[in-house]
Amino acid sequence: MRRVAHTIALSAVVALFLATASAARADSLLTDTFEDGNSNGWSKSGGSWSVVTDGSLVYRQSGTSADARTYTGTASWTDYSVRARVKPTGFNGSGRTAGVTARVQSGSAYYGLALSNAGRVELLKRSGGEPITLAVAATSVSIGTWYTLTLEAAGSTLRGYLNGTQVVTAVDGTFASGRAGLATSYASASFDDFSVSTGTVVEPTTPPTLPPTGPPTDPGAPPLGFASVNALGQSGTTGGAAGPTVTVGTAADFLTAIATPGPLTVRVSGVLTLPGPMHDVTSDKTIVGVGTASGLTGGGLNVGLPVSSATTPPADAVHNVIIRNLNFTGTPDDAINVQMFSHHVWIDHNDLSDGYDGLIDIKRGASYVTVSWNHTHDHTKNMLLGHDDSNGAQDIGYLKVTYHHNWFDRTPQRNPRVRFGEPVHVVNNYFVYNTDVGVACQANAGCVIEGNYFEDVEEPVSNSYAGPSGRCVARNNVFAGESGAPVCSGSVQEPSTYYSLPVEDPNGIKAAVTAGAGTFNLS
User: Fold this and answer.
1) Interior CA angle at 327 toward 323 and 333, to 5°?
2) Are 453 and 477 in contact (CB under 8 A)?
3) Which of 40, 126, 127, 501 has its CA 20 to 30 A from that of 212?
4) Reported pTM
5) CATH assignment of 240-516?
6) Alpha-carbon distance 386 to 388, whole Å?
7) What's the CA gap between 191 and 47, in Å, rounded?
8) d(CA 39, CA 114)
């Protein structure tokens, strides 16, 4: 989906807080996830460009016999950052490149940040002839691997980021404005999640320290919503409370701990770099970060058995898992995946950003899950509940999930995208500038959406977003700024059939969630 953004007017207080958060908090000028199946609005110069399927829909340049460029946007853009995920798929010779471009004047005049098969990231300038190298940084570049490149142009200063870390910088005043785009030189590549934003990028190498949370901050407090319900032989969600506690500071120790049978609380100290893509979590586990800056990068968590065609819960379904107070970044698949009839899972007070696929996906018959007080940002395809329109045999009667007090922070789509689950309770969350859709309730799902604050969300709630329609009830929500109206119809089973959860005044939700979502200082 490609949309040029409207300008968002934020209050001074909110602007100050957002400036301290983990990544760019400026206005989006343009995003394109290519999920609409076309490349409308893009100009091409050389190469063979098309939208193809590579896990999801991506923009691919398949030729390797020449330079190839494509660009979009407005020639008057001046100071901005351009960001995309880039996967090289082939190099024809040595020193070949694929990357992003900024201040594009033409197919032969622009700045670029590119991955080179010479084993480096290159900050480039092209002005009519061969590219001029402005700065380089050594890195490993592999065919078939996704990388996130961000090129910032601010005045005459250029900065290049690889996977969220600044690696190169240079000063050059040749081009003051221009469009943004993608480029390859005798290389083929796939591109996805393209975005252009105003302002200065701040992409730290360590996760941010956020303000103390709103309630609950007690690490022993029980969950609310579906994770609190007694069902499927499990009495609420207690994680590893019945077992010992270990503190881990290495990836090896962490992976051993989460695979250990029996109740266990695993305290994560520092940022652990995991091998990708996802790692299995066994039943009766609490995984919790120490302080505000601990977390996982390079790999995510899978709560569930391997995928099968089973339509009833197996006796050994993973259950009773708590994931709290962790920073997730740079995951090559899902950050957190809950699947295959896993139940009683609580995902709470995490900061999640900059992953490959979903940040929190729940699917294949999983149920009795609460997703609360999480901050998601700098990511496009945010959360799925139910992975496919044809998976009703596994999902109908399951996928009972509560989403409360989450901050869906400029995440364009899947906030969440829901199939089959009923009831799905979306209550007291803050949605801001979700440029595609907020809550999408489809494939006969039943969603109750209440007490939320939507700000500048063009399509905040829809039961006809894509594919088969769902059913939804939207009540007592705030639609602020340039938010549209909800598109809802049908009747839905009430969440109060299962649990009691007081609905707070939506007018106070923005302040409460921005102050409380994300990690907190658990010593």
Assistant:
1) 80
2) yes
3) 501
4) 0.64
5) 2.160.20.10
6) 6
7) 14
8) 21
* In the block, residue with structure tokens 């900050």: 123
- Provide CB contacts within 8 A for 491, sequence distance 6+: 446, 471, 473
| DSSP strand pairing (187-198 vs 56-61) | antiparallel
Question: What's residue 276's pLDDT?
Answer: 85
User: Which of 269, 293, 270, 148 lies closest to 207, judged by CA?
Assistant: 293
Within 8 A by CB and 6+ apart from 75, the residues are 105, 177, 178, 179
DSSP for residue 464? -
pLDDT digits (tens, 9 = 90+) for 217-267: 445 578 999 999 999 999 999 999 999 999 999 999 999 999 999 999 999
List the alpha helices (DSSP H) in 281-333.
Answer: none
> What is the radius of gyration, based on Cα positions, of the chain?
23
Is residue 515 within 8 A of residue 501, CB to CB? The reply is: no
Domain spans in the chain, listed from the N-terminal domain onward? 2-198, 240-516
Single-letter code of the amino acid located at 349 = H
Q: Which of 159, 414, 417, 471 is catalytic?
A: 414
Q: Which residues contact 418 (CB under 8 A, 6 or more apart)?
A: 385, 386, 399, 424, 439, 440, 441, 442, 443, 445, 447, 470
| CATH code given to domain 2-198 | 2.60.120.560
**Residue range 132-141: average pLDDT?**
88
CA distance 179 to 75: 5
DSSP calls for 72-127 = ES-TT--SEEEEEEEEEEEESSSS-EEEEEEEEEETTEEEEEEEETTTEEEEEEEE
- Asked if residue 223 lies in contact with residue 345, where contact means CB atoms within 8 angstroms, the answer is no
With 0-12 CB in 10 A as exposed, 13-18 as middle and 19+ as buried, what is 139?
middle
Dist CA 209 CA 207 (whole Å): 7
178/181 Cα distance (integer angstroms):
10
